[in-house]
Design a protein that fits this description.
Elements: H1 3-13, H2 20-32, H3 35-51, E1 53-54, E2 61-62, H4 68-71, E3 76-83, H5 86-95, E4 100-104, H6 122-126, E5 134-138, H7 143-156, E6 162-165, H8 181-189, E7 192-193
Parallel strand pairs: 3-4, 3-5, 5-6
Antiparallel strand pairs: 1-2, 6-7
Helix pairs in contact: 1-2, 5-8
Length: about 190
């Protein structure tokens, strides 16, 4: 096979959930596309990679730090919703139900995969606890998500802050990212103190 084509296929295979066949379909689609479309795709990838930053307060993705949510004076600064990743934050925001601040962990505890507390943004979270009255832990209802939620609750409890967890409206083993808005609204409304 032609080296540039092999290289493109290998690049697509690095994307999550993309195997050999899907990577080949993507590569052949790019080859058949007009030059301008391929250049626009490449330019979009490069520009996104260059312009996206991490918020210095909540560790969310943003163009300018602090992010729009942390900068919004209308947000309830007494509440912080802790999520695994930026995608989960976006899904919760779409419900329009939660009006507090966020904190993005950038993963969950998973010792078997080499992810420990120092790999997450927990130190940044602990710096934000002044004047906070509630921490809503919105990690996925998986073994790792539940372990992370328990670990965070143990870290925060000495600060006399109310700690809540999303209600189990999201199925066990499920992912916040793929939940519909009604399920998320029910989970937000039914959250309970840990």
């Amino acid at each position: 096979m032609i080296k540039p084509l092999v290289s493109l296929i290998d690049a697509f295979k690095k994307l999550p959930g993309v195997g050999q066949k899907q990577a080949e379909r993507f590569a052949f689609f790019i080859i058949r596309s007009p030059q301008n479309d391929a250049e626009n795709l490449a330019s979009s990838i490069i520009n996104t990679k260059k312009s996206i930053k991490t918020c210095s307060i909540c560790a969310s993705l943003c163009e300018k730090s602090p992010c729009e949510i942390c900068s919004d004076e209308n947000r309830d600064r007494k509440k912080i919703c802790v999520v695994e990743n930026y995608t989960d934050l976006q899904v919760i925001e779409k419900t329009g139900r939660y009006k507090g601040l966020y904190h993005v962990l950038s993963g969950v505890l998973s010792p078997l995969d080499g992810v420990h507390q120092d790999n997450l943004t927990l130190k940044l979270l602990m710096k934000r606890l002044d004047a906070v009255e509630e921490i809503l832990i919105a990690t996925n209802p998986t073994v790792e998500g539940d372990a992370t939620a328990m670990y965070i609750s143990q870290l925060v409890k000495p600060h006399n802050i109310k700690i809540t967890r999303l209600a189990k409206g999201i199925p066990s083993g499920g992912s916040i990212e793929y939940s519909d808005e009604i399920t998320l609204i029910n989970a937000l409304d039914g959250r309970k103190e840990i």
